[in-house]
Amino acid sequence: MATTKQREAAKRNVKKAQAGARSKQTLKHLDKSTRSALGQEANAVRRGDSPTRAELDAEARRLDIKGRSKMGKDELKRAVARARRAS
């Protein structure tokens, strides 16, 4: 069974974690144009106009693109497009 001191320390840790989670709401701290661009990209993926990162990764794996795990989504898009043109 936990002592009073341990319970108090656990309660403090939970409060710190909750405060940290509240303060790290990063999307609402971005400027309006960036939020808008992120929303447009998400909508394009939902509509099927743009592939997801997982789909791009699978295509890159099929095309045997090196370094794909370290690439971001936009970089993967470009690498897949280049590899498709080359083949």
Order of helices and strands: HHHH
* Total DSSP E strands: 0
- Look at the structure and give the mean pLDDT: 88
Shape: elongated
The major sheet is characterized as:
none
* Oligomer classification: single chain
Q: Count of helices?
A: 4
Task: Note down, in words, how this protein is organized.
The chain has helices spanning 4-23, 32-47, 53-62, 73-86. It has 87 residues and is an all-alpha fold. The longest helix is centred in the first third of the chain and has 20 residues, at 4-23. The protein has a domain at 36-87. It has four helices and no strands. α3 runs parallel beside α4 (73-86). The model has no long low-confidence stretch (mean pLDDT 88).
Furnish the topology, listing elements before pairings.
Layout: H1 4-23, H2 32-47, H3 53-62, H4 73-86
Short description:
The protein has a domain at 36-87.
